[in-house]
Structures are given as structure tokens and as C-alpha cells.
What we know:
- By secondary structure, this protein is of the alpha/beta class.
- The protein is built from eleven helices and nine strands.
- The protein has two domains: 2-54; 64-268, Glycoside hydrolase/deacetylase (TIM Barrel), CATH 3.20.20.
- The protein has helices spanning 2-25, 30-54, 87-98, 108-113, 115-123, 143-159, 178-185, 201-204, 207-217, 234-249, 257-263, and strands at 64-65, 67-69, 74-80, 103-106, 127-130, 190-191, 222-226, 253-255, 266-268.
- The strands form three sheets. Strands 3, 4, 5, 7 and 8 form a five-stranded parallel β-sheet that branches. A two-stranded parallel ribbon has the order 1-6. Strands 2-9 form a two-stranded antiparallel sheet.
- α3 links the parallel β3 (74-80) and β4 (103-106).
- α1 (2-25) packs antiparallel against α2.
- The longest helix has 25 residues, at 30-54.
- The relative contact order is 0.17.
- The model is unreliable at 1-6 and 41-45 (pLDDT under 50).
Amino acid sequence: MAEALLFLALVVAATAVGSYLLRRRAEKRKWSVWLGTFVLAFVALGAGAYVLMNHRTFQLFGGLVRRVETPEKLVALTFDDGPRSPFTEEVLEILKARGAKATFFVVGDNLQREMDLARRVVREGHELGNHSFSHSRMVFKSLAFCRDEIESTDRLIRQSGHQGPIHFRPPNGKRLLVLPYALSQMGKRSIFMDVEPDSDPQLAKNADAMTEHVLGQTRPGSIILLHVENRSRREGMKAVPRIVDGLKAKGYRFVTVSELLAAGTSARP
Length: 269
């Protein structure tokens, strides 16, 4: 709420200052004052919308979780954009060899083509999450579009044998008004992350750098995001076993997002 009020205050302030300056310069041309005020307000709103669309800790409707408060050394490792063969199989083998659980935020369009692979994910004790059906940026979309993207993917996830809640992560982290409202109506929260090494292009180029970043930034209750289910993400794939081994050596236990939320004393935006 504080961010929303600040955003509103900035828009009002920008409009007021712009109006004052234009009035001083064009007192005899009132149309230019009103036009200038409109342009300034439009720019301020656009800038505010851009910030809100990409904000990692705040959204106007519904809940948002980046990590949870917990005294235990628990961590949720998450992967986006699958399932995709052979990358998902490679991740599963890495996790199986180390006895680690993960949550896979899957794209419905991929899921319907890789249902057997999704069933393997569930069978091996991991969790499936919803990452929309088409991986479209769900900004400036209708309520019906957002609901269909979520519900159609939820149905496919159920077909894979997944039990329990189905968590949602917005494609590219983008959301503004309609998607958060749809999620709030469906009783879902946006699941984000507090450790995301491959969002930094420099880190994403080097598995050692990614590993060092994750080991240094992870705290009890952290949610880690990796993108590995693509040929261009080989460094991320190389980092997976190093990250798991490194965190295990520090005493961390890998759990699903649902297990992390259940163990936490509170969710942190």
C-alpha cells in the first residue's frame, strides 16, 4: 500500500509542477497549459505503470511472495519455462542424485506436448507450478484472457497427477492490474523469488559466478529461480549441481514451494 500511495503522490506532484511551469510560460495560451498538463500526467502514469509492472515486492491486488520467514534452513529451488526434453530430464537426474526437491513452473503449451515428462516430475516428488499457457506477457490483457491462461494450465497440471495447491508465477514477472485482480479472485498469489542469478546477464555467462552468487545470497526461506530448460542456458545447467551441493554443505534442505510456505511463519514480499 505504501508503494501505491507513493506512486499516486508522484503522479499528482509531477502534474502539479508541470502545470505550474507551463502556466508561467503560457498564461495567455490556456490550451497549451492543459495540453502540457495532460502530457506530463500521461508520462508520469506511464513511468509509474512501468515500475509497477516490474516491481519485485509489490502488486496492487492479491498476495506476492519472494521468500518466507523460517528459523529452519529450508530453501525452494524453482525452474521456469518447462517441461522441455532433454533439459528437464537432465535437471531431474541432477536432483535425484542429490536427493533434492524442486518446483517446476511450467508453460501449458509445453506441458500438453510433454505430459509424460510432467508425470515423471510429479512421480519423483517434485512440484508443478503454473507459468501461464502461452508465456505471453500478461499486461494489457483482458480478464478473460488471464483467467483462461491460468485455468487451462491448471487443468493440464492436474492431468499430470499433481496434488495440492497450484502456485502461479507471472511470465517474465510482468503484471499490472488485470492479472493480479484475476489471481486474487482465484485465491492465488504471485510466487516470485529473492535469488535469481541468471537475471544478471554477466552472471548468466558463467556457472561459477552464478553459483557464488546463489551461495552468498541465499537465506533460510529463500526462493531461488533458475532458467535451464533451453539450449542457451548451458551455464545455468552447469550451476545446478554446484548450487545444490554448496547449499547442502551449508546445511540447507531443499523443499517445494508448498512445503516452504507451510513451514514459514510468514510470507515475505
